[in-house]
Design a protein that fits this description.
Elements (H helix, E strand, L loop, with lengths): L12 H29 L3 E7 L3 H18 L3 E7 L2 H13 L6 E4 L4 H7 L11 H10 L2 H7 E2 L2 E2 L2 E12 L1 H6 L11 H11 L1 E2 L5 E3 L7 H4 L8 E2 L4 E2 L4 H17 L1 H9 L11 H4 L4 E5 L1 H9 L6 E3 L12 E9 L7 H12 L4 H11 L6 H4 L2 H9 L4 H6 L4 E2 L7 H16 L5 H22 L2
Parallel strand pairs: 1-2, 1-3, 13-14
Antiparallel strand pairs: 3-13, 4-5, 6-11, 6-12, 6-13, 7-8, 9-10
Helix pairs in contact: 15-17, 19-20
Length: 453
């Protein structure tokens, strides 16, 4: 009797010779392929591209875009490198200081204006014909131009916009006696829903959060607030609208209990990727998150029933007020192959071919940056397949706030986070926290003026 998993023929000389022949044949094919690829890439101009995507996005989206570009022509070869986001800006600045920056960079942070002001990135409209630049300004959504330009010049071509809306669990809503088809029209009503959905154990510890607002940048637009005065061309933090927004957030956190929320969230697996999202596990009933979750839910939680809806305003607030972010492609000033980088940017962004670019956008679960991409067959088919994505499309041209167009965007973000944390923890009132934040920004403006920056 032959034991399971054993094959006596595997020990025979004939079997070994046959196996060796197969291995040799496979090695020969591999060497031919490698030789063919080497020959195919000989003479091409290298384009070095840095980005911060990892995991599924790197493998399933970015690497495929790079491959598509390399196979689409014979002049350039893009060589992509994924670098950690936390150190990406430092690495880039060191490469610039050393005189050998990459040719193209996918910028995630809030440094476009600062780098444009310092002259270390190229104005990309200089690579366009007058007709291309005029068409892009007509075709791009207004909010896209806001985040892509600085002092009227295009410094970063957006590859996608990001915004936020509510994801809700209809099953949990029905169990709490709430109607998923009648999603709240005001923040006050949404908070009432959150209270009914929240659960605790016998000791009063949170076991499920119904809804908990967080993020001053995302909520200020609903109160008619924001952080940039277009008329005065200045950062505005300490305004009545922003104070009302922060007071609202502070009251919500104090109702829940800051320490209680911290303990609850520290017990969760709250990483940034799909299966780590507490909404999937049912530990959050209503969550504010980005449009990329639609694609992730289809892939990793296809059986989960859910809905999407815009975050409602407070009574008397701004309907569809929202906050948006963006990823942009830039070219450093001293890039060795700026022409190749621009060819890659045109290929990816849709400036050259919107229909082809739409395939990249739907693969990444990204919002379109131009009406041309939004109207393509590929993108319309994607919306038909994922109708919940329409919630985010609806928000794109509406009252979307973006980071102020100043060289110190990161400082603005930092002082806002500090003000929110201190207010929610009761260390400062919302008024004093925002007044202090405004003072820090005003000091920075004065410092820059003294130095002629």
């Amino acid at each position: 009797m032959i034991a399971e998993g054993k094959n006596p023929e595997a020990r025979s000389p004939a079997f070994r010779l046959a196996t060796a022949a197969v291995v040799i044949a496979l090695l020969a094919v591999t060497l031919l392929l490698l030789k063919g690829n080497k020959h195919k890439n000989e003479g091409r101009e290298k384009v070095y591209f840095w980005h911060c995507w990892t995991g599924e996005w790197k493998e399933n989206v970015i690497d495929k875009i790079v491959t598509r570009f390399n196979n689409s022509q014979s002049r350039y070869q893009v060589i992509a490198l994924s670098i950690p986001f936390d150190s990406s800006e430092q690495k880039f600045l060191l490469s610039v200081a050393g005189g050998k920056p990459p040719d193209c960079v996918a910028l995630w942070g809030r440094t476009l204006s600062a780098w444009a002001e310092k002259g270390i990135i190229e104005p990309l409209n200089n690579f366009m014909t007058p007709e291309e630049w005029a068409h892009y300004q007509r075709d791009a959504y207004p909010v896209v131009l806001k985040v892509a330009t600085y002092k009227g010049r295009l410094y970063g071509v957006p590859t996608n916009m990001n915004t936020y809306a509510c994801y809700f669990n209809p099953k949990q809503l029905r169990e709490a006696g709430l109607d998923p088809a009648r999603f709240p029209k005001t923040l006050e009503e949404l908070l009432d829903w959150g209270r009914k959905l929240t659960k605790t154990d016998v000791h009063g510890n949170l076991t499920r959060i119904g809804f908990l607002p967080a993020g001053l940048e995302r909520y200020a637009p609903l109160f008619g607030g924001g952080f940039w005065d277009e008329t005065g061309q200045r950062v505005t933090i300490n305004t009545p609208q922003n104070v009302r927004a922060l007071t609202f957030l502070t009251d919500c956190w104090r109702e829940f209990g800051v320490d209680r929320v911290v303990r609850f969230r520290s017990s969760l697996n709250t990483g940034g990727f799909s299966t780590e999202w507490p909404f999937i596990s049912g530990q959050e009933s209503i969550a504010l998150d980005g449009q990329w979750r639609v694609e992730q839910l289809a892939r990793y939680a296809p059986q989960l029933e859910y809905g999407t809806a815009p975050l409602p305003p407070p009574r008397g607030g701004t309907p569809d007020g929202c906050y948006g972010g963006v990823n942009r492609l830039i070219i450093p000033k001293d890039a060795a192959n700026a022409a190749g980088a621009w060819a890659f940017i045109k290929f990816w962004s849709g400036i050259e071919n919107p229909e082809r670019a739409a395939e990249f956008y739907v693969a990444g679960g990204w919002l379109p940056t131009t009406t041309g991409i939004a109207e393509t067959t590929a993108y319309q088919q994607y919306l038909a397949k994922f109708p919940k994505f329409q919630t985010f499309i609806h928000l794109l041209p509406e009252n979307m706030e973006v980071p102020p167009p100043v060289p110190y965007q990161q400082l603005v973000s930092d002082v806002l986070l500090h003000a929110e944390e201190f207010s929610e923890r009761g260390l400062q009132t919302p008024q004093s926290a925002l007044a202090e934040a405004q003072e820090k920004i005003d000091r920075e403006v004065s410092r820059r003026q003294r130095l002629g920056l």
